[in-house]
Amino acid sequence: MIPPNPNVMRGVISTLNKGSYLTSIPEEGKGTWNNAKDMQEHYDYIVLGGGSAGCVVANRLAEDPEVKVLVLEAGYADDIMSSKTPAVFLLNVDNAVTDWQFKTTPQVHAGGRIMKQPRGKILGGTSSINAMMYHRGPASDYDEWESLGNPGWSYKDCLPYFKKSEGFNDPDLPPTHPRGPLTNRVRKPLYETFEPEYHGTEGPWQVSSHYLHGASEGFVRASIAEGVKFNKDFNGESTIGVNKIQTFIQRDGVRSSLSRAFLKPKGVVPGGGARGTIRVVLGADIRRVLVQMKGGVKMAYGVEFVDHNNVPRRVMAIREVLLCAGAFGSPHILLASGISPSPQPSIPHIHTLPGVGANLADHLGIGVVFRARNRCHVAHKDFGYGRSLPAYINYKLRGTGVLTSQIGEAVNFLRLEEFAPDFVAREKANGTYKERASGPNSPHIEIIFAPYYMKKHATIMPDDSKNYYTMIALLLNPCSTGTVKIAPKKGSKSVNGSSPEFETVIDPNYFSESFDIRVMAEAVKFMRKLARRMNQDPEVGGREVFPGESAVPDDDDTKLGEFVRNSAETYYHPTTTCRMGPSSDPLAVVDNRLRVHGIDRLRVIDASVMPKLPAAHTCAATVMIAERASDMIKEDWRVPSQSDPIAARL
Ligand SMILES: Cc1cc2nc3c(=O)[nH]c(=O)nc-3n(C[C@H](O)[C@H](O)[C@H](O)COP(=O)(O)OP(=O)(O)OC[C@H]3O[C@@H](n4cnc5c(N)ncnc54)[C@H](O)[C@@H]3O)c2cc1C
């Protein structure tokens, strides 16, 4: 996908698109970081992290004209091509300008590998660098959240909030629609099906269908031929089956990140009209939440951060501190604030919460690469001047074409007993089968089809890259769980009396349960079946090039297991590191209104609070959580009453 000659692309882009840059922005374009001039000492709410959840929360709270919201974000403005243009989103991964570039500890059950863990360090957070797949997951996963001791989080309760944020673009909407020009692209009505009762059309987050490569259609056909049922709408009644995935891409082909959807609309920034104000400070490195004892209660009252100019600052919250720093950032900030499982050296201990940083769950993916008969790669090494210029002009003028592909175009969601019944029977007979899915309609495996050479987060590209496609199997219900901890950063010093800097130590403990490996090995066999089908398709073809059937034969479980162990990578869905649960759950960090157990006026609102990793891509669920939390906060502050413990102390 990386264009062959970045200089050529850069030239084309800056000529056609003054003001936007490919992967980085010059100092003066970085955004509103110079807070010394106009930052206040107090805000009603301080949102820690201007990422996926943070942008939603800031917008919704500032619907109250009386309210002032401060958003502190470590990254910078998102007006860069690598974020805006779907097909080049992987340029953001491992890019110091947009990615935190986290790494895991050596993974002892995964060949000792140190693995990448990309996270967005940019306005919009990970929603500004991700693959834009809009997927909520099965209803029973949310019912399971409720059954784990979280009243109000069943699917029935969550659905209105999924719909609230969504601005679903029915492909038949007229070109005059207020959400911008409908592109002149050729529709693929066969794949752009949906169940309207499950979608919202008035929310700011745009969901639509865009590019579908011919090979991706071949994948859908091959899956159906292998017995996978066609799914009209993965976000509708059932999520099982095969189809094109819906995407959060605007009607004009630009990424609908949560910052673009919730912070950019006219009047939101910097807070005009009949709304409260939102002040966004970029380049803010949050060090800790400030907590004091008041009336025998521990209460969050502010935040300490180091600004873009390396100046330590403190800012106070009149109402609440809202931690939205993501599945790695939120436990990191809590631990650095002394809210942790046990006292840590050099950090004043404030409160003991054993669950902070525990329970880390993530989706691993195993990729198999195939060589197609014909050109099958959306943006490859021969994507030079001759093709990139017309593609770019087409994209800019019409919002159509190959640059609107988000690479993972079509997917299967599968149950094990459907694609590997013998395996299930064998494991059950041995007493080793582990059912982690929430119910019979929750999938075990997802297979993503990418018309693209996808190895090591797409950092490797062969010279003849144009003819490859990759299938990636994601393990949706992993048994293995890990931890997030912090450690003093080497060489870091306190800046003018600020708290010291810590490193985030991420140990997902991948494959600590060998059942996870055996399930993924079965998925590899099924991907090969699909590729054999595709090979019969004159349009596509499909000869395996990695790992190769002779190197890793289907009938050699040991070699298959080794391949999975040594090649699987994160597919980017870390969650549950500050999980929601009742106070009776020793590892719960927040209650069902997302308030931190034992600390007043502090909530966590992001992917870290999920009680269990859903069998889904995690952005839509994160946004739903942020919508719900915003309403809860408004409810808690609207009517002061003696029965409300927060309001009673006002
Ligand atoms: C490459 C990639 C592809 C993905 N593809 C998809 C997909 O297609 N569909 C999908 O549904 N999900 C996808 N995901 C996952 C999804 O994007 C995330 O689950 C979701 O965006 C998480 O939202 P969040 O609000 O929890 O965290 P984030 O969006 O990461 O927000 C956290 C914010 O806090 C900031 N922050 C953290 N620490 C600090 C600090 N100390 N000081 C200041 N600021 C701080 C961060 O910079 C960031 O902006 C993908 C993820 C990646 C990495």
UniProtKB/TrEMBL annotation:
Residues recorded as binding FAD, renumbered to this chain, are T126
Q: Which GO terms describe its molecular function?
A: flavin adenine dinucleotide binding; oxidoreductase activity, acting on CH-OH group of donors
**Positions annotated as active site in the UniProt record:** H573 (proton donor), H617 (proton acceptor)
* Keywords in alphabetical order: FAD, Flavoprotein
> Which Pfam families did the record assign?
GMC_oxred_C, GMC_oxred_N
Report the Gene3D superfamilies cross-referenced here.
FAD/NAD(P)-binding domain, Glucose Oxidase, domain 3
Which family, according to the similarity comment? Belongs to the GMC oxidoreductase family.
Q: List residues of the Glucose-methanol-choline oxidoreductase N-terminal domain.
A: 120-143
Write down what this protein is called: Glucose-methanol-choline oxidoreductase N-terminal domain-containing protein
Q: Which domain of life is it from?
A: Eukaryota
